[in-house]
Amino acid sequence: MNIGLVLSGGGLRGVAHIGVLKALEEHNITISHISGTSAGAIVGSLYAAGHSWQEILQFFKNVPLFNYKKYASNKPGFIDTSKFHKELTPFFAQDNFDALKLKLYITATNLITTELKTFNTGTLIKTILASAAVPGIFSPVVIENNTYIDGGILNNFPVEPLQKECSKIIGVYVNPIPDVTTKDLKHSYQVLNRAYDISFNNQSMLKFNLCDLVVYPKKLKEYSLFSIKNIDTIFNIGYEEAIKVLEQEQQKLII
Prior knowledge:
Layout: E1 3-7, H1 15-26, E2 33-37, H2 39-48, H3 53-62, H4 85-88, E3 103-110, E4 116-119, H5 125-131, E5 141-143, E6 146-150, E7 168-172, H6 188-205, E8 213-215, H7 231-249
Parallel strand pairs: 1-2, 1-7, 2-3, 7-8
Antiparallel strand pairs: 3-4, 3-6, 5-6
């Protein structure tokens, strides 16, 4: 039986995906296919390459997201995404999808054509970086003369690639909307950010019914995209929510 795993974007909240991996292993659930975007693409690719959840968690702890040596020069973004290439290289035996142990799909947004691109062959590391290139913060990534940014812009819950491949699908969505009050929406940028949050969240949640199980850790709304100091807490939130869902609904994975 093929079991697919969908991993959403969500910045450092994506560390919760790693906690879910731990819970799945403890329940002897073997994943055969992964579809991920942004942070989900990073976690998914490392897991598809055969790395343990412990190794992936350590990766997030060791790789500094904000370092003056990675600042972009003459590129649209604060951080030069390409400078993370060497951080990822040691984790992959070959820089190619074909060398992975699990089937992997990664989505990225073509900044020029405005179309969503789903990658499952060819160069791997650039594709991971493109999928995770949050606009305005990380510089876009050029792949075969096309310019790509964060796949979550167009599809933050990429379940579609798994629908024809897998008999069961587990979805993990780590991007809940933070609680706000009217007092928190005094400025136009705050209203704009809230509107985008609502749009992205609703588009993703409409696809929850395409999954057999969904892990949706709502406690993550207390943490920002870049909660560097809260990695262990975020990991545990993902783990605890996955354990709760599996204990209640694991029978849904039985054919």
